[in-house]
Amino acid sequence: MNKSVYDSPESTAASKRHILTVLVDNEPGVLARVIGMFSGRGYNIESLNVAEVSNDEHLSRITIVTEGTSEVVNQIEKQLLRIVPVHSVSNLDEEGSSVEAEVALVNIDLNDSNKKKIYEVCDFYRARKIENENNSIIFEIAGASERINRFIKEVNQITKIEIVRSGPVAISTYKNTKED
Amino acid sequence: MKQEMTGAEIVLQSLVDQGVEVVFGYPGGAVLPIYDTLFKQNSIKHVLVRQEGGAIHAAEGYARSTGKVGVVLVTSGPGATNVVTGLTDAMMDSIPIVCITGQVPQHLIGSDAFQECDTTGITRPCTKHNYLVKDPNKLSPVFHEAFTIAQDGRPGPVLIDIPKDVQFAKGNYIEKEKIIIPSHRLFEPEIFHNDDKINEVVDLISKAKKPIFYIGGGCINSGPKASALVSQFVEMTEAPATMTLMGLGVIGSSHPNSLGMLGMHGMYEANMAMHECDVMINIGARFDDRVTGRLDAFSPNSKKIHIDIDESNINKTIKVDVPVVGDVTNVLNKIIQTWKDRKLTTNSSDLKIWWDKINNWKKIDCLNFSNDEKEIKPQYAIQRLYDLTKDKNTFITTEVGQHQMWAAQFYKFEKPNRWLTSGGLGTMGYGFPAAIGAQVANPDSLVIDIAGDASILMNIQEMSTAVQYRLPVKIFILNNEYMGMVRQWQELLHGGRYSESYTDSLPDFVKLAESYKAVGLRAKKPEELDDVINEMINTDKTVIADIWVSKEENCFPMIQSGSAHNEMVLSKDQKQDESSAEKGKILV
Lengths: 180, 588
Prior knowledge:
heterodimer, A: alpha+beta, Alpha-Beta Plaits, 5-stranded antiparallel beta sheet, 4-stranded antiparallel beta sheet, 5 helices, B: alpha/beta, Rossmann fold, 3 domains
């Protein structure tokens, strides 16, 4: 089960990755409420993403990747719903069908000897070069997290890189999933 | 109709509109405009406490004894940080509070200004919701929403932080009727209310051979009707019922179906019945660790029904079979109606066997203690207090520790909202200010704070408040010169090494009372006890009764940490088995 001062009898359930999307009123402090609930109750956040999705209604969507047993994740969902500005919480893994994507920007240390190999890898993964005023070599790659992991691994074997990742965002594939 | 007013006037108008009669508070630089407005009006009474921590506990006592929202007004910085304990207490015990804090003017926020702190940041985890209001036009919508949220669903504390410039600025007041709160910001129970669940509940109960009701504070928060419905349904099913510390009074102690309190210092028969039952009906309780004992041995053979307004309590620590999310009054109404419509009953012969078993457990007489002729036993002191006050209109508050558990065991409650104690957070220093709040709300009632000598010193400054407002609150101190519960744990779990649990240099409580122009009484011997209690009751002033009790008395029965319901220890001579004791030692 879950947390208590006493050992729990059923804590052997399998822990897995879950993506939660949380629709919230975009008001001051709302992100702090959400992440404060996670840290205060000892839950994990693997990645977190937040942006306004409806300007006129002042709604933001927070995408959280967390890991836990289904009991723990269930408890997380219910605790999130207690937060006043939270509209809805969906666990995309439980809804069955969803797509996810994330973006990574990679600054690559390029020279004549590795240039060809790197361009091949970037082509294969459809990473796009972003021009910039310092003429450094920066690629953008978007897609499933595992694909980005593989891309980074391959480039890393060739040369030194610096990476920034957005963490995944995800959406249900069902039609008309209008919330609230 | 929109009216231009200053922010401070909007605050006061919102309170009036919400039916607030009393505010507990303490002034300071960042709330001066609100205090100035308060000075110019007569509809709201202000009770000046002596430390902000006292204000919030007083508001809690006011709220608990009336069912209304308790209101607190304090300044920025230390004013706000001093209410944090009380906010957490109200959060844990689900008490509706609206706390107004002043804040430094907006242009100084973030500059480490004098008496500045990040109030909304600090109080975010210990409030149901909080606000920093930057626009005077938003004040009235925020206030009306705050009062709704404080009382809605599972009640709790809400804090409103108002920068000083917003208190001076002009804005429009909007009446509460015109405020529409979006439904997602409130509790929405109807989606969970379906008849299949109710049918499942009544089917399980009607087929039960060994049912038990496990009743919590949610029944009190749901309003006086809930307690009547719970009693009614318990009678219809003829089942036994046990109450948590928070639920005492839902079913009268003298009710034949009541087994009294359960849990760590609960009744032997209640804990044994919880352990052996086949159907458990949890109404408004949350499987707190003080109630369940060791989880893997908690009521191992029962089907569990859990009625709770807070969905996050379902399956939080104990997996239940039939969860029903909703307000106790609504859910019980439905259950009783279904029970009647389907003409259900429990099986009397099964119930008779169950009651026989329970009556055998009762014969253990778990509250038995050896009385003494020379020393006042603390249990005896509470028994006498109960006997001499039971026919009066009495409210009991407590601090936290041994005296609290003895009060829960030996004082008998027949009605809800009469027992005000800090359960979830276990806040020493709660009882006296809570008694002040209860006395303000119920000026003609007898309000007694059953205290320990250590706890009472945590908010003793409120003597000045009680005397100023002529509140005839009675403080009944079970004085053993120890932090009794700490000492008891040290005796049972730490080899009797009483590390820092003895209170040296205690004040002379009689002289202390007198120095505040209150009345001080003392009983040192059993034969003096009744006279002191009677004099205390009959004195129309604030009274401290200093009752000298046996110093090293332990509170039994007890489920020691790490043990299960059926492993209760009834006396000092009975030892917990060693492996549980070792595991239990690390627990709280």
